[in-house]
Design a protein that fits this description.
Layout: E1 2-9, E2 12-19, H1 21-36, H2 51-81, E3 91-96, E4 103-110, E5 124-130, H3 134-147, E6 150-153, E7 165-173, E8 183-190, E9 212-218, E10 232-246, H4 252-257, H5 263-297, H6 304-315, H7 320-325, H8 327-350, H9 357-369, H10 375-384, H11 386-408, E11 410-416, H12 418-433, H13 435-438
Parallel strand pairs: 5-11
Antiparallel strand pairs: 1-2, 2-4, 3-4, 6-10, 7-8, 7-10, 9-10
Length: about 475
């Protein structure tokens, strides 16, 4: 086997690889000998078919199999010998081949760039910590208590008002005709929430128990029965019962109902949950700050095929006109992602960072626990989608690299109150939404404003 470099330009290298016909023949004869024990032909005892007969019957297929194996082995050896780290799939061009001939082919490869990593002390970032005031925790508990309303029966002569819970039976008609689903028994709604039909609730305000009221409403455009969508409908409603909201007393009993031991325990659980949500948002800002510096401090050539593949991924679901309209921006995003990926991977390799199967399984289990009732759905998703598991592995790997940076770089630690955190997060999101710089904000997802951070209204989990 002979290996020569034909040309080298930038990241592209063209290799010429030669394998003499004697080497090929030896491998061909060895494979034919192997087939003697495998092939069964009429007129011959098992394992006694002559190689010449096998060759006449399967010669072309065997030659193709042997050449394919030689191409794989020699191309791998050539890349190892020339110490080329390949980016993407190499291109093979057969020059001379055929039974009884030497094999000569060219291998065109695009290599990964050499990256001179900047030392960790080249980076600076703010590491935000959150400290919640007791006032914030109490406010969150009040929010939860409002989400868990208790109702008590109103007196017979009391009228319904907004916020009451009302139970009713109904019979509905469209142009005087009944339809499938036109009757309902014991329907319960909270007046003012408009969860039944738009404009329906307000027509049931001011009624007493056992009263009947005719209500008009429009069926929704997404009604299961297409022929009923957007139809004007009359409902004859009979009020069965009316309940008014009862103030929830925030005490140990309430805390136990929410899954805590007592009220102080509930406060600790709420604090932990809310602080975690703030911290995730703030950590994303720090991560973005680090990624921006990594991209700015490194100047490298990018493998064209990797950028093209990334661009294809970005635009795969876009219409042709959208692709053209956002062409420059999408190219910028693709370049940014590939550059960051290469540099981050280089830092990871240089510091022997790896992701084990146990770490992947642990992360999947976390997702399973966070979606009660849908455990099988989550597990099946990862079992049936290897690409999703690979993506998860990439996310874990990236988090490890960011943690490595934070452990070695210059970090200015700032502890924020919830109001200060709100301001930092809000300013970050406003900057990302600024059209002048929006195109540059492609490394991380937009941080959720903590004004949207809400403690789950279901029972608090201690996990």
């Amino acid at each position: 086997m002979k290996i020569e470099i034909n040309s080298k330009k930038g990241l592209k290298t063209n290799l010429s690889i030669f394998v003499d016909k004697k080497t090929i023949q030896k491998k061909l004869d060895a494979r034919l000998a192997e087939l003697q024990s495998e092939v069964s032909l009429k007129g011959f005892r098992p394992g006694k078919v002559p190689p010449s007969v096998i060759k006449s019957q399967f010669g072309k297929a065997v030659y193709g199999e042997v050449i394919d194996k030689i191409l794989r082995e020699t191309s791998t050896k050539a890349l190892e010998e020339k110490k080329i780290k390949v980016a993407g799939q190499p291109k093979i061009d057969l020059k001379t081949f055929g039974e009884g001939k030497d094999l000569n082919y060219t291998l065109e490869v695009e290599s990964l760039p050499k990256i001179e990593l900047k030392p960790f002390n080249s980076y600076k970032a703010i590491d935000y910590k959150i400290k919640l005031d007791e006032k914030v925790i109490n406010e969150k508990i009040r929010e939860i208590s409002k989400q868990h309303k208790h109702f008590e029966d109103k007196k017979e002569n009391e009228k319904s008002v907004k916020g009451d819970q009302i139970a009713f039976d109904y019979t509905a008609t469209i142009e005087g005709n009944k339809f499938e689903g036109s009757e309902g028994k014991g329907v319960v709604i909270e007046l003012g929430k408009n969860l039944f039909l738009k404009g329906f609730d307000e027509q049931l305000i001011g009624l007493k128990k056992n009263e009947t009221k005719n209500v008009e409403a429009i069926l929704p455009p997404n009604h299961p029965k297409k022929e009923l969508a957007n139809k004007k409908t009359k409902f004859e409603c009979k009020i069965i019962n009316i309940k008014k909201p009862k103030e929830t007393i925030i005490n140990d009993d309430f805390a136990k109902h929410m899954g805590a031991k007592d009220l102080p325990d509930l406060k600790k659980l709420i604090e932990k949950q809310v602080a975690s949500q703030y911290q995730q948002a703030l950590d994303a800002i720090t991560k973005k700050e680090i990624l921006d510096q990594i991209e700015k401090l490194h100047k490298i050539d990018l493998p064209k095929n990797l950028v093209e593949n990334e661009l294809a991924m970005i635009t795969r679901n876009l219409k042709k006109e959208e692709v053209e309209k956002h062409k420059k921006n999408n190219e910028k995003i693709a370049n940014s992602r590939i550059k960051l990926g290469l540099v981050l991977n280089e830092y990871g390799e240089n510091n022997n960072l790896k992701v084990s199967d146990d770490e992947i399984n642990l992360e999947i289990q976390k997702q399973v626990r966070s979606m009660p009732g849908q455990e099988k759905l989550v597990m099946d998703y990862y079992k049936k989608n290897p690409s999703a598991t690979q993506s998860l592995k990439g996310a874990i790997y990236e988090d490890k690299i960011i943690k490595l940076f934070k452990s070695k770089m210059k970090l200015d630690v700032k502890t924020l109150s919830s109001l200060e955190a709100e301001k930092v997060i809000s300013n970050f999101n406003k900057a990302k939404d600024n059209p002048k710089i929006k195109d540059e904000q492609n490394q991380t997802d937009q941080v959720k404003s903590s004004s949207k951070i809400k403690t789950k209204s279901k029972k608090i989990s201690k996990k």
